[in-house]
From TrEMBL:
This is 3-oxoacyl-[acyl-carrier protein] reductase. SUPFAM superfamilies: NAD(P)-binding Rossmann-fold domains. Its EC number is 1.1.1.100. It comes from Sphingomonas yantingensis. Keywords: Oxidoreductase. It is an enzyme of class 1 (oxidoreductase). InterPro entries: KR_dom, NAD(P)-bd_dom_sf, SDR_fam. Coiled coil: none annotated. One of its GO terms (molecular function) is 3-oxoacyl-[acyl-carrier-protein] reductase (NADPH) activity. Belongs to the short-chain dehydrogenases/reductases (SDR) family. Residues 13-192 form the Ketoreductase domain.
């Protein structure tokens, strides 16, 4: 008899979600809680993480800056101490300011990579260490972007480079952790209706930049709309679940068909 709860459920499992305070991360926290997980909601926005944890049974908030080595190390260790185990990490936290490439400063370049690239390295490093120590295997899902595979919109080169790094870190470490039963995959959203996306678009307009590029062209979003955050969360749940037990190192587009258009 096939047991769907075993394939897709997370009963008695602990899942750490970075960037869980709003947007896609909040939807991930909601879906994993519905699937039975005890969720550690981490975010640099302590109030946001606290509000999400407060509405989810069993969830606990952890203020954490993924760009800060001490913060990531301490948070991961605290989650393991509090819950006794770490079964999955969904790494969602990132920033995506739109910048004109030619006027972008080195400090602006570095600030984005501190969060998106170094943050992914730190979150993965600490998660893998904790999972190896637990000796139960585990799953890591990195939320990257179609921008990491293909130029999608203009004024976004720095971000695209960081998400290409996330995709490559996913592949590199998938082969190095498979022997420990740790699977590492990435989800590549296209456009998603979130607070962060709205704020980035408004800031871009305030900076006098316009949104152009392939994703804005006619027919380039075959499903005809941007995603709801829960549609990204559903892919994260699948890749972290036992249903995906033979999947590692993949980058799954959840993009309404953009990459094949
Ligand atoms: N929204 C989209 O259209 C879209 C498209 C492709 C990929 N993505 C990716 O999806 C993920 C989530 O995007 P979103 O739209 O939900 O963004 P969002 O801005 O709405 O939420 C991001 C969360 O990450 C947190 N965060 C930011 N910097 C952090 C740090 N240094 N440490 C810890 N937490 C930090 C924020 O406080 C926020 O709660 C990101 O990785 C983003 O790159 C989003």
């Amino acid at each position: 008899m096939i047991d769907l709860a075993q394939l897709y459920g997370f009963h008695d499992r602990t899942v750490l979600v970075t960037g869980g305070g709003r947007g896609i991360g909040r939807a991930v926290c909601e879906l994993f809680t519905a699937a039975g997980a005890r969720v550690a909601v981490s975010d640099i926005d302590a109030a946001g993480a606290g509000a999400v944890a407060a509405m989810l049974p069993g969830a606990v908030a952890y203020p954490c800056d993924v760009s800060d080595e001490g913060s990531v190390t301490a948070t991961t260790a605290q989650v393991v101490r509090d819950f006794g185990r770490l079964d999955a990490v969904v790494h969602v936290a990132a920033i995506f300011p739109k910048r004109d490439f030619l006027s972008m400063t080195a400090a602006q370049w570095d600030a984005l990579h501190a969060v998106n690239t170094r943050g992914t390295f730190l979150v993965m490093r600490e998660a893998i260490k904790a999972m190896k120590a637990g000796a139960r295997g585990g799953a890591i899902v990195n939320v990257a972007s179609t921008s990491g595979e293909r130029a999608s919109v203009t004024n976004n080169a720095n971000y695209g480079a960081s998400k290409a790094a996330v995709i490559n870190l996913t592949r590199s470490m998938a082969i190095e952790t498979a022997g420990d039963g740790i699977r590492i995959n990435a989800v590549l959203p296209g456009g998603v209706a979130t607070e962060g996306a709205k704020a980035a678009t408004e800031q871009m307009k305030a900076d006098g930049l316009s949104l152009g590029g392939p994703m804005t062209g006619p027919g380039r979003m075959p499903l005809g709309r941007v995603a709801d955050p829960h549609e990204i969360a559903a892919a994260c749940l699948f890749l972290a679940a036992d249903a995906a037990s033979y999947i590692t190192g993949v980058s799954l587009p959840v993009d309404g068909g953009f990459l094949v258009s």
